[in-house]
Amino acid sequence: MKSFVTVAIATVMAAAAMSGLMPATAQKVGPSGNPLPRFVSLSASKAFMRTGPGRQYPVDWVYERQNLPLEIIDEYGAWRQVRDHEGTTGWMLVSLLFGPRTVMIRGKTRELYANPALNAEPVVIAEAGVIGLVEGCEGLWCEIEIAGESGWIERRHLWGVYPGETLD
Fold first, then answer.
1. pLDDT per residue over 118-135, tens digit each?
2. Which segments in the chain show pLDDT lower than 50?
3. The pTM is what?
4. Architecture of the structural domain at 103-159
5. In the chain, which end has fewer C-beta atoms inside a 10 angstrom radius, N or C?
6. 148-162: buried (b, 16+ CB within 10 Å) or exposed (e) per residue?
């Protein structure tokens, strides 16, 4: 009976997400009260990713790129299980993460436009891997800031925002 209830709840939540009543990314809430999964940014210029939620676990990776977008996929006390743009997962202290959303350019060199349209004037050219601050997203487009310059880019070229997520 328990599995039926679990399936029924998951079905109702999926239907609510698809109907627009609930964003697809907010289907689960972690112990902190925040949605899982969710994107954050790396606040530290050097951060250790560990194999488990505690200092007793070995360091798997050392990140030395402040503002790197990371996806929180689980929580345990003061620890957050995160995933990076390459799919690597591990645990970091919550104090190493912060909320201002950043994104990373994916794939290849991309143009950012003055307006959310492919025929708009290009204002920034950004290489793959460049990190920008999200100013907002609507529909298929996000406005981001890179080195003080703002422009619009198609959401599909970014890592750090979910499909259909609206950001102001």
1. 999 999 999 999 999 999
2. 1-26
3. 0.82
4. Roll (2.30)
5. N
6. eeebbbbbebbbbbb
